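Hey, can you fold this one?
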Amino acid sequence: MLQPILKSLNSKRIVLASSSPRRKTLLQNIGLKFEVIPSNFEENLKKDTFSSPLAYVNETAKQKMLDVVHRLYKQDSPPDLIIGADTIVTMENEIFEKPASREHAVQILSRLSGRSHRVFTSVVLATPSEADPGYALVQFHAETEVNMGDLAPEIIQAYVDTGEPMDKAGGYGIQALGCNLISGINGDYFNVIGFPLHQFSKELLKLFPISG
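Sure. Predicted structure:
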């Protein structure tokens, strides 16, 4: 989808403002060249002050992005594009982020077992601007419905013991060992991994249109 502008994009300075190895791999898979400069923003926003899980993930993604923007747009040659994102799992307005411990991972997966939940990823793109404050932001989100199979306690414990859930929102990785815990999805598979590639590509084509 980005092939018509990929050569032009890869001549620009692009920064991924995320330490997620999965986002890095997904963006590399579509041929994008970039450097990784993770955000230092502490993800400590109070969930109960937001009207919805979507509002929470949108603000978290924005704040993570702004931390990197404020550092890099002070440079003489700021990046042409900065990419930031945040992903959450939610069910019945409860937000499930990365487990704090293995016990917490067991609790999360036990709650999700046999039920449907939603995965939101909020993406923020920053580009230079002549207007104050010197950059422009574009923000969008993707939503995917995920159906978790009925998981026996011993299956949950064995999966948690692999260590895979510990760095993943919702305590599972659909792209790895956790794939066989999922009975089905409705929406963007890559969004569940952590980055909605199709919607991202559509937004890039708006920011950097095909010429001629």
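DSSP finds seven helices and seven strands in the chain. Let me know if you want another pass with a different chain boundary.
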